[in-house]
Amino acid sequence: MRLTDHEQAMYDGEHGIAKQKAMDLLVRYGNALGAERLVDTRNVAGTIGATTPFMRKYADEAGGLDAVFSEFNLDSREVVRIPKVSVYSSHLQQGIDPEHAAEQGVGEDVVRIFRKGDAYSAGLGVQLLNTCAPYQVGNLPARGEHCAWMESSAVIYINAVLGAKSNAEGRESTGAAMLTGKIPYWGYHIDENRRGTHAIDVDVPIESMSDWGMLGYFVGDRVQDRVPVITGIGRAPNMVRLKHFGAAAASSGGVEMYHIPGYTPEAPSVEAAFGGNRPIERFVFGRKELRETYDNLNATASDVDVDFVMLGCPHYSIEQIWEVCQLLEGRKVHVNSNLWIFTPRATKQICDQNGYTRIITEAGGFLMSDTCSALGRVMPKGVKVAAVDSAKQVHYLPAIMGIQAWFGSTADCIDAAVTGRWNGGLR
């Protein structure tokens, strides 16, 4: 790997031992990938917290949060003092919502560690967005901007919808990038790798958020980690629909980049989307494929008695919470069910101001932040059957938590929360 003079100086330790270890990690990582050089980044989204039981134990035994950063972000058993970050960095979702620890079954000792971690991250200059969707609340990369982001649903969004450039990074590479402002130049940082490889012809109306989630799940399953070009889309999709499409495609496959000609920024036409490539394969998404995808997403569920409804994967936007409140206002969550909705902290503040939090609370639900059920492994005690409107969450939640889960529209899910029964279906 070729290093610039500045990179070589960091690698040699002239800018401190923490940056030296960060550069050592990035060079090893880049060499393993076959990257010939590093690229500058001024935008990192990662995680440096210690909310899992193992990391909390490690922090106690090894000497605090510098030890956690050293081991889990820099791959160093030697504990080094971590300086302030060098570039704009934001924290992704964590393991709990400290304001709803009781509902999530989290003890005060965990909350104390969480708050200590927040203070530590803020002290390093990391923005405490604590969300899987930082582009909704203050970190909105520009087209062409080289980023270093974790979180599959966020990476695919900034690549395809915004035209920024990032691979799906890990805790280690993003931690190193925070300190150095560097990341290996490979994958989707390179223009030729962003060109379309597979064609998806949509032959059925795709309107609702759940429609887009099912389309995404189908696409990811078919193309895996390649670059699909989707045609046949009628009405222009909004941010919410593209967010759920990307999250689903990144879950059933490993999609990090896609094109919708006429809508996404690097695809003014089909020809531009493929950039001279010929499609490796072509797939059709019609009524048959829609039905098969819906049935696949609901394969874990058989019991129609729903005791948990979880919304907000990826974290809900203010528009989605507004829509939920229209469906929920004046109604009550069933005595045998629970309703949890997840959103970024910053969005929750707007919900407080707009009265949306009050509407959800008066109905018997909870508006939470900072985590989600699958990532934090937090649910009401004794849950057996959940309902979700996220293809990503229904993909992970049954496997992680060992429960049944129904997938459907947001309206279906609110109805399940109010009645305690699943009445959803493909329409």
From TrEMBL:
It comes from the Bacteria. It holds the Pfam family AcnX. Residues 1-415 form the Phosphomevalonate dehydratase large subunit-like domain. GO terms for molecular function: lyase activity. Keywords: Iron, Lyase. InterPro entries: PMDh-L-like_dom. This is Phosphomevalonate dehydratase large subunit-like domain-containing protein. It comes from Pigmentiphaga litoralis.
